[in-house]
Amino acid sequence: MGRMTDDAVAEGGARSGPLSGLLVADFSRVLAGPYATMLLADMGADVVKVEAPGGDDTRAWTPPARDGVSTYYLGVNRGKRSVALDLRDETGGAAARELARRADVLVENFKPGGLHRYGLDFASVHAANPGIVYASISGFGSGAGRRVPGYDLMVQAVSGLMSLTGDPGGPPYRAGISVFDVMAGNHAVIGVLAALRYREATGRGQHVEVDLLSSALSGLVNQSSAYVAGGVVPYRMGNAHPSVFPYEPLPTADDDLIVTAANDGQFRRLCEVLGVPEVADDPRFAHNADRTENRAQLRPVLVERLARRGAVEWFELLVEAGVPSGPINTIDGGFAMAERFGLDPIVEVGEGGRATPTTRHPIRFSETPAAYALPPPELDEHGPELRAWLAGPGKGGGAEKEDGAGEDGAGEDGAGEDGHA
């Protein structure tokens, strides 16, 4: 599958992991693309991050920062090597095209068509490198929506997500993260891996296109299906679930607690722990459809019992009984719980003054574990060796990069820079 050669590409080195040997040319910036390429790097790919001379926009997105570097940037760029290239410059453009010619995978998030002027569009790259898996991430696809910048907040709005988020009768809210950027990044990784499998079987590369709006509509899952299959337009219900009850925060003696009883067995166990086993036999609450229809009558019964203990105590009792529940943590509490469960959520990348704590790769492999080869790179940190490698004879498969993944960023070219904030 992989083709890394030439002294393992200018000291980039062959890496461990299921994608070891693959060279990824990363012409993306901000979030969806960089998140996707970081996951590929964790799995062993040699990722060359091509940046404009001014660097990825997120380098300046502060606060917060660590040692003067944006934690936003640090969170999605480990494992890569950086080369700064001006695509408008003859030398920089040539180096970028050579990187694309040698790469196994290219990831970009310019506005559709934005790379054509540099000879870095799919058709041009594919002509020089027929085996390339070329992944494009845009806001609204390469058709009628091609000129619309694709920021995550826009897509949360136009997809309908914001109409589902918030209190009934209140204003719509965005999610606390750029959820569709992350989702599109994951979809891009899935598409790349599928295309690599096809290439392995046929020798042919292909163009993989991911857009934020399609990722959003797919990711709205049951709410999308409510409309597509049922003709129902969902609405804001606060923290309530349209099809399951209880499945929301409920007050206890101190803090709110997430209580979930997604089937009849869980509900019966919940009632037993709360000391009201007879409630599970009440015809109004015996089955999920009944509980959902009669939630206004059931909720006060549960709240009255939960008021007798605090959230943490109930959490321990309910989990022991097999009832899904959980306290509503701040992010530090989420990491603490992951530590408690032995998930080791934080990994340090780099050594000495470059040691950077980052969030562990989410997938565990029994034979080819994720590896964290490099800390998030400084701008053009690996530029000299990569440019030298690209200027020399190359047979393919390397890890270099130059110029700026999109020189003018989100503007006229840049897929809405990724379009995610």
Automatic annotation (TrEMBL):
Residues 405-421 have a biased composition (Acidic residues). It holds the Pfam family CoA_transf_3. Residues 376-421 are annotated as: Disordered. It comes from the Bacteria. Keywords: Transferase. InterPro entries: CoA-transferase_III_domain (IPR050483), CoA-Trfase_fam_III (IPR003673), CoA-Trfase_III_dom3_sf (IPR044855), CoA-Trfase_III_dom_1_sf (IPR023606). GO terms for molecular function: CoA-transferase activity. Coiled coil: none annotated. SUPFAM superfamilies: CoA-transferase family III (CaiB/BaiF). Gene3D superfamilies: Crotonobetainyl-coa:carnitine coa-transferase, domain 1, formyl-coa transferase, domain 3. This is CoA transferase. It comes from Planobispora takensis.
